[in-house]
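Practice problem 4.
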């Protein structure tokens, strides 16, 4: 009987052992993470919140502080940037009584405390109440890398681009690793391109091999700019023979590209100037072509349009500021109507008595221009008036190596639109047909029943109205003053004569050609000498082709 009893006791003992193992195993497994050292678990892996990570800095050693810095940078939260900067500068302290972390600066008998995340004041503390969080050179490097990583990982693409451009300018070699990690995680192609160039600039200042640096040179030289040229020239100092040769080749490529982009930029500036000349001259082309009147007061019609824009904006500023962005659209018809009405009054009151006497017309309109300038001075004063630009005309953008301002782009579009509308009016309306008939043969048109006197008046009014519309556009790029029109009257006559008197297409080609020619001459001859050379060119050209580029055809002209 003792034997069966012994077997029963053995089985009971076996069951107890198995039960103990089953209970002790999980408990032991659960206790193993708690027994692991801090060096085996990083804050980044623990899933801690930012305040928890900050609290870990209190009393931490250098290794633990570095792990916390890396974890804070990995959050990508810009609010921790002041904390990291304070840590690197030695201004981060903690209070041993509650392990709270503050940015502390000397003030009074102790320290002024600031919350490192919110920036709010946290009162004062005595010098013995807070302890400085110590840093060494290795930790300072980690902090700088963390700050770079933090901005490079910002959710705002503009912030990431600004951070990369900062590295591109400084060429800090310590930014290579943060940029490498940021490039691997970047989804935006344009941001990644800037980061890659910034990483290449940092590599050029590092101790990388020549092969790696040559690859970085090719990356930087892929986009030609003055900054690229400066970075490459700076990297050539002390470079090896192979690297120096690669840099020299890249610099030659960049300088060639810059020369091409500079020529393209001059063409753009020339087209921009040509559009301004077109706006100022297109109305003169009509009046001068139809009536042969040398209207020296044409510039004052431009001035009237600019002052109409000023008055409209003043009314909007004082009574309806929410309409400011459409102020130019409101000013356009008003400027056309005002300048056109003044033009009709001038034609009916002065010009119609002076047909066939060009010298007397020139003197009369020149005196009229002085009168109009003095009237404007009496009403608005002699000083420049402020005309603002709406939001859609402000700013600039880059197209390759070109910098294009929205204001100039819209003026070019506006000039071409005015030209197209005018061509349609002259080609497809009864008024345009009558005006062309009077232009070609005034006597025949009169015998066909066309009222040439009123055609002259309306034509003069149309040219003056277009000049007023030009004043609206010119108010965005020039000073609005009583002398505004005088800056464009001579150039307008040159455009009209060069293109062909009375020919709109000639005026278009002449304005754009002279604008581009001016901008190509200015860098070499200067603004004043450039204009003189253009004038000499036009005089010689008129000697060869007295009727201009596109001679107006008609019986009166041919006779």
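Answer key:
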């Amino acid at each position: 009987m003792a034997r069966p009893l012994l077997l029963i006791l053995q089985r009971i003992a076996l069951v107890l052992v198995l039960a103990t193992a089953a209970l002790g195993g999980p408990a032991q497994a659960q206790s193993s993470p708690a027994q692991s050292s801090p060096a085996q678990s990083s804050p980044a892996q623990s899933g801690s919140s930012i305040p928890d990570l900050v609290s870990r800095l209190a009393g931490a050693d250098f290794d633990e502080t570095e792990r916390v810095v890396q974890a804070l940078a990995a959050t990508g939260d810009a609010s921790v940037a002041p904390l990291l900067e304070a840590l690197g500068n030695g201004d981060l302290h903690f209070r041993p009584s509650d392990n709270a972390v503050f940015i502390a600066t000397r003030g009074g008998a102790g320290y002024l405390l600031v919350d490192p995340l919110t920036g709010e004041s946290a009162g004062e503390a005595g010098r013995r109440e807070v302890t400085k969080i110590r840093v060494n050179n290795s930790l300072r490097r980690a902090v700088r890398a963390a700050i770079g990583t933090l901005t490079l990982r910002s959710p705002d693409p503009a912030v990431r681009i600004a951070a990369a451009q900062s590295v591109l300018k400084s060429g800090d070699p310590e930014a290579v690793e943060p940029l490498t990690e940021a490039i691997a995680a970047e989804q935006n192609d344009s941001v990644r391109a800037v980061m890659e160039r910034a990483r290449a600039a940092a590599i050029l200042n590092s101790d990388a091999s020549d092969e790696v640096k040559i690859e970085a040179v090719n990356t930087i030289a892929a986009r030609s700019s003055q900054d690229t040229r400066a970075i490459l020239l700076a990297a050539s100092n002390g470079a090896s023979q192979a690297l120096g040769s690669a840099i020299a080749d890249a610099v030659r490529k960049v300088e060639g590209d810059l020369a091409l982009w500079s020529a393209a930029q001059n063409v753009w500036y020339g087209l921009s100037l040509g559009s301004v000349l077109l706006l100022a001259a297109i109305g003169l082309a009509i009046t001068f072509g139809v009536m042969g009147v040398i209207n020296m007061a044409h510039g004052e019609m431009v001035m009237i349009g600019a002052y109409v824009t000023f008055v409209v904006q003043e009314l909007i500023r004082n009574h309806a500021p929410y309409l400011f962005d459409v102020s130019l659209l409101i000013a356009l018809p008003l400027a056309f109507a005002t300048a056109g009405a003044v033009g009709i009054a001038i034609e009916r009151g002065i010009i119609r008595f002076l047909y066939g006497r060009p010298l007397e017309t020139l003197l009369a309109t020149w005196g009229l221009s002085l009168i109009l300038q003095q009237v404007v001075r009496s009403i608005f004063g002699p000083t420049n008036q402020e005309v603002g630009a709406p939001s859609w005309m402000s700013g600039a953008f880059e197209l390759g190596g070109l910098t294009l301002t929205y204001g100039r782009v819209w003026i070019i579009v506006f000039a071409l639109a005015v030209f197209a509308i005018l061509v349609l009016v002259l080609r497809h309306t009864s008024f345009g047909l009558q005006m062309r008939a009077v232009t070609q043969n005034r006597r025949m048109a009169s015998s066909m029943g066309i009222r040439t006197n009123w055609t002259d008046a309306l034509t003069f009014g149309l040219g003056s109205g277009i000049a007023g519309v030009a004043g609206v556009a010119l108010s965005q790029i020039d000073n609005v003053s009583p002398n505004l029109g005088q800056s464009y009257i001579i150039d307008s006559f040159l455009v009209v004569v060069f293109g062909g008197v009375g020919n709109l297409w000639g005026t278009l080609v002449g304005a754009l050609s002279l604008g581009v020619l001016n901008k190509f001459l200015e860098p070499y001859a200067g603004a004043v000498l450039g204009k003189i050379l253009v004038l000499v060119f036009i005089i010689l050209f008129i000697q060869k082709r007295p009727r201009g580029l596109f001679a107006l055809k008609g019986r009166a002209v041919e006779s």
